[in-house]
Amino acid sequence: MLCSKETKEKLGYRYVPPVFATYFTDEEMPKYRLGKNSIDPEVAYQIVKDDLLDEGNARQNLCTFCQTYMEPKAVRLMSETLEKNAIDKSEYPQTAELENRCVNIIADLWHADPHEHFLGTSTVGSSEACMLGGMAMKFRWREAAEKRGLDVRAKNPNLIISSGYQVCWEKFCTYWDIEMRTIPMDADHMSLDVDAAMAAIDDYTIGIVGILGITYTGRYDDIEDLDARLTAYNAQAENKVHIHVDAASGGMYTPFIEPDRKWDFRLKNVVSINTSGHKYGLVYPGIGWILWRDAAWLPEKLIFDVSYLGGNMPTMAINFSRSASPIIGQYYNFVRYGASGYKAIHEKTRDVALHIAAAVEETGLFEILGDGTDMPIVCWKMKDGVTKEWDLYDLADRVRMNGWQIPAYPLPADIQDIIVQRVVVRADLSMQLASLFIADFKRAIAELDQASILIHGGKKRRDAYGFTH
Prior knowledge:
Elements: H1 5-10, H2 41-51, H3 72-79, H4 93-109, E1 119-123, H5 126-147, E2 158-162, H6 167-175, E3 179-183, H7 194-199, E4 205-211, H8 223-234, E5 243-246, H9 254-257, E6 270-276, E7 288-292, E8 304-306, E9 313-315, H10 325-362, E10 366-371, E11 377-382, H11 392-400, E12 408-410, E13 419-424, H12 431-450
Parallel strand pairs: 2-3, 2-4, 4-5, 5-6
Antiparallel strand pairs: 1-7, 6-7, 8-9, 10-11, 11-13, 12-13
Helix pairs in contact: 3-10, 4-10, 10-12, 11-12
């Protein structure tokens, strides 16, 4: 039976034009104010998707440590749980239990002592985790200093860290009135100079940060040596100084690749550790974790009780409402991969990094500063004596023509005249993709050698090109 036009309209029938035949795709949509009317969801989807067309392929972004691939089942599970509020543990008790399981798994991975009472939480990322670790150090120092009779207001307390720090530590020190005592990196110390760090300690030192994977080069601080030195120092000093390990990069990588390396709670003076689940924990942004070796290392003033969400719940995070989806993604990875899966993935990642380092070195133009031996990060500079009309900024531009994003940037203060380039190898950079990158990299060099116009060459740039952290 055929319906009349009037009947069809009453029944809700309507003609849906093709997306690119609509008025909305024939006019530029307002960017900085709301449009007057609602539009079809398919059209809205296409408009937003088209807005992102020239942004680049995340898989080819070799600047970032953040994961750019998860398995389809993980993505499905995370998309199905986006609405869950991680802070509301009374409404979502099983989600809270999964977070608790993750904390226990990570504590076991970091060799928490079963005779101590470890404590931990998820965070939005390592930046929030570092803030929490830093605040705990400051509050503990202040309480102990006041008991010793020290005038805690005479000057700002200080935090000791390598100049290879991630910017979140600068934020922490600025936000909470801490003097950041940076220990300069130099050609002989491409990680923390432990001698200089020990010499910088005074009565106002709240702690020392050891970095497990410096973002500039991928090198590790020698946390085991730092711990031994602090053990001797604390035996005779009034102000006991301890270590927070910023393991944003290495916390979920090193335990599988170098299980015998001592950097974690096996060391007496390591009292707190943070990591990024969205780096080598293999989860999409943003998820971080922080653990204290014992609840005694987290001052009670930093734990708050929240009662208006349906139950009385303690919280220690800076951030409040956020999706529990990344927590569930982290737990999925733990269940899915297990220890053997993480080990296999990270071993492959390291192999790819070593392969890229060898290929870069084979050009004869570059000195390798990080070859993927510690973290799977390859870092290089132009060899002394190599003269080219182009520089690393030009090279970064050229490889981007094939979609690859690799940063060029100066090293920290005191060695800022050294311009380096870096590739971060993540789990989704297969050997096949690495071979494509190497071919494009070598082709870019050959094309620059033949170029008649260069953008940066000879301009002595010292800024950062590309995202370096």
